TrEMBL record:
This is Ubiquitin carboxyl-terminal hydrolase. The lineage of its organism: Eukaryota, Viridiplantae, Streptophyta, Embryophyta, Tracheophyta. The gene is LOC107937234. Recognizes and hydrolyzes the peptide bond at the C-terminal Gly of ubiquitin. Involved in the processing of poly-ubiquitin precursors as well as that of ubiquitinated proteins. It comes from Gossypium hirsutum (Upland cotton). Its EC number is 3.4.19.12. Residues 23-382 form the USP domain.
Length: 388
């Protein structure tokens, strides 16, 4: 990315953020779905910093089996410290850095190790067909959680099997029998997990039944010439259950008409919104891409929550699907870093104006030459102590 990198550095000029680096990612045939999401996650600062902190502690501890979490952390370390895939090249780079007293700020990294591990973990991503960026994001976050939870359980079991530490009044931190343990909360949960509450009100006795469920992202149905705010309102709209959809009320002990709605009980620190641009059309017998124009603001107020106060968010990344259908196309990403918007297209990185973000809202008409549409949106909470 020599020429492109020099062009980016020239565009940023003296405003090039200290300590920040921008690297394109090599495409291994069909891995744009992976590259676009990885760029968005890398510029999710709290997630990135906690991942790098985890990796630092991991390297200082005992060796463990390689997994997707380690491969991702190693890749982010390459971004951060301008590494190459080969460890010996890394040492050479360190020497070059010491000599020049300036680290490389642009370039191309080949995420070969990560992609190989991804394909080994999930056969869905082994083919060379067009993959779905949202499916990849879901798999990745859940896989990271599984790894962290497994490590925590292993560490806890080792601590419990070791001799108890003796103190004046008996063993330290004794566990009471029959006490329900709190669910494990990892740093992935702290960044991305929110809580939805599903409320159902019986129209006969007015009893409200509430059921909570967690989420890492919100998948929203979309309509033509709409906005994220209207999509969120539709997501939380009240639905009437009647006829064959009647609700079984525990208090009435029978099927009754009811009203239900879904609301956000606890907003996440990082709000990920997935726009359902691929819809199955029964008449066609296949999925079709919806090129609808859906406006996503740079600053978002989340008003449809259980809490009275609005939750304010700022857009920092967009994964864009390019193409007219779900089975072929391309993925790119837009990222905000230090008040600059950057356009990542695999190996290529360019600086763009903030006003260019709106060109990815979608098409106001059904047939349009513009096939670049926002698909996954990443918002960060503006609450300073949200993730504390």
């Amino acid at each position: 990315m020599g020429a492109a990198g020099s062009k980016l550095e020239k565009a940023l000029g003296d405003q090039f953020p200290e300590g920040e680096r921008y690297f394109g990612l090599e495409n291994f045939g069909n891995t744009c779905y992976c590259n676009s999401v990885l760029q968005a996650l890398y510029f999710c600062v709290p997630f990135r910093e906690q991942l790098l902190e985890y990796y630092s502690n991991y390297k200082n501890g005992a060796d463990a089996e390689e997994n997707l979490l380690i491969c991702l952390a190693d890749l982010f370390t390459q971004f951060k410290f301008c590494r190459e895939d080969d460890a010996f090249l890394f040492l050479a780079n360190v020497i070059d850095v010491l000599i020049s007293s300036q680290k490389k700020k642009t370039g191309v990294i080949a995420p070969k190790r990560f992609v190989q591990r991804l394909k080994k973990q999930n056969e869905l991503f082994r083919s060379y067909m067009h993959q779905d960026a949202h499916e990849f994001l879901n798999f990745l976050l859940n896989e990271l959680v599984d790894i962290l939870e497994k490590e925590a359980r292993t560490a806890k079991n080792e601590a419990e099997t070791s001799p108890p530490e003796k103190v004046a009044n008996g063993p330290k931190n004794p566990q009471a029998n029959g006490v329900q343990k709190e669910p494990l909360v990892t740093w992935v949960h702290k960044n991305f997990q929110g809580i939805l509450t599903n409320e159902t009100r019986c129209l006969r006795c007015e009893t409200v039944t509430a059921r909570d469920e967690t989420f890492f992202d919100l998948s929203l149905d979309i309509e033509q010439n709409s906005s994220i705010t209207s999509c969120l309102k539709n997501f939380s709209s009240t639905e009437t259950l009647n006829a064959e959809d009647n609700f079984f009320c525990d208090k009435c002990c029978s099927l009754q008409e009811a009203q239900k709605r879904m609301k956000i009980k606890k907003p996440p620190h990082i709000l990920v919104i997935h726009l359902k641009r691929f819809k199955y059309i029964e008449q066609l017998g296949r999925y079709k891409k919806l090129s609808y124009r859906v406006v996503f603001p740079l600053e978002l107020k989340l008003s449809n929550t259980v809490e009275d106060a609005d939750s304010e968010y700022s857009l920092f990344a967009v994964v864009v699907h390019v193409g007219s259908g779900p089975n072929h196309g391309h993925y790119v990403s837009l990222v905000k870093s230090h008040n600059h918007w950057l356009f990542f297209d695999d190996e290529n990185v360019e600086m763009i104006d903030e006003s260019a973000v709106q060109t990815f809202f979608g098409s106001a008409q059904e047939y349009s030459s513009n096939t670049d549409h926002g698909y996954i949106l990443f918002y960060e909470s503006l609450g300073a102590n949200k993730n504390s």
